[in-house]
Amino acid sequence: xxxxxxxxxxxxxxxxxxxxxxxxxxxxxxxxxxxxxxxxxxxxxxxxxxxxxxxxxxxxxxxxxxxxxxxxxxxxxxxxxxxxxxxxxxxxxxxxxxxxxxxxxxxxxxxxxxxxxxxxxxxxxxxxxxxxxxxxxxxxxxxxxxxxxxxxxxxxxxxxxxxxxxxxxxxxxxxxxxxxxxxxxxxxxxxxxxxxxxxxxxxxxxxxxxxxxxxxxxxxxxxxxxxxxxxxxxxxxxxxxxxxxxxxxxxxxxxxxxxxxxxxxxxxxxxxxxxxxxxxxxxxxxxxxxxxxxxxxxxxxxxxxxxxxxxxxxxxxxxxxxxxxxxxxxxxxxxxxxxxxxxxxxxxxxxxxxxxxxxxxxxxxxxxxxxxxxxxxxxxxxxxxxxxxxxxxxxxxxxxxxxxxxxxxxxxxxxxxxxxxxxxxxxxxxxxxxxxxxxxxxxxxxxxxxxxxxxxxxxxxxxxxxxxxxxxxxxxxxxxxxxxxxxxxxxxxxxxxxxxxxxxxxxxxxxxxxxxx
Length: 517
Prior knowledge:
The chain is of the alpha/beta class. 35% of the residues lie in helices and 12% in strands. The chain has 2 domains: 2-60, no CATH class; 136-466 and 478-512, TIM Barrel, CATH 3.20.20.70. Strand 12 (474-477) and strand 13 (483-485) form a beta hairpin. Helix 6 packs across helix 16 (436-460).
């Protein structure tokens, strides 16, 4: 009896020791934010993930049913970020013949062979530069060619944690892509080597006076002292177009207040509209003033609602006197920011519809070669990213996909301040689980793999750059064994010609402006 009790005591002690060591390991390791924030119990998440495919054959949801990102999409991002096997076996589990709006890429009978490791022209970074120089068409002093066609979308410090912003910026430096600051201003966490696009929202955070009005001198000082390569004036975003934002007082730390130039103790309000301009004419004056003061390219970001704005903007740019250097189109399905359900679900056109309408307006006026077009809104996957490029985008931005690369698990608690992985919170305990240096490597891996697979798809079509893939390479399947060419669906067909070798301002290809439909 005594021996049995002693045995139980030893067993219990051993179990406690294992538990204690596991908890200690979880707290000290830096690879997994969930385990650092929730030691021991966090392992259940990974165990359930491991047996998930088997469980889902009988219960819960299928691989492509979850939203906004399906399990297959998240798995691809996670595996790519961790440099794990991101292949899928046993063929597709999508029902191609009964899926509406299903995207198909038509490959070439004579694809190009990709360089392999060890070849003289093999590039482990899979660098894919932009086909245009941003700002060159308007002779901006600091015009430049973006080194990567994949870049990080606007996500503010305040909405995201300091650790998440730092991880994104360090990752941007590693993979050579641009990092959009979001409208919260340039924070110290944006200054870890990654080049920036500074987004200027309606609150003018980081470049505002005490009364909330725009402070030109402060903006110029920041541009001159940081790695800002371009300025993006945000008119609206896909998550809540036409609606101002609110950062609750509870989330406003002393540091956030200092960076944004706001007071603590009360909600931070981003108005619905800019106070510095109120129409296209005054907006273009503002654009030219910023470009003259800083020398960097200046563009706009907007979701697509009424077409009259875009028609008026294009008409105002025809004479060449004033104009934006780039246009970022955010799809209504975009959403790194939280918003009311009616706005997130029903306001602004989805990317493919909205971008097609805007691009055609500028193409009809022979303006597309003067502008760098940027797309955002669930474009962080090879097939949809390539479609965006074929539609006329020169660059694509990734937001939520980048968040997943640094640890987001799609808990959808961004608006509560209780993000369990420390990505979208200011809670110190939750933030400590996200280690910026290791997560930066994952972000860089994800962007690199996305560029690699964009190149693979381009070579499958017989061309050496993703922007050379034409819209004629895509078909859209319906749910009744039919299909339509993508050019017919979207109503236009950008054509491509080789650039003049003697012209350094031309890109790898040039988009010729289609006229009408």
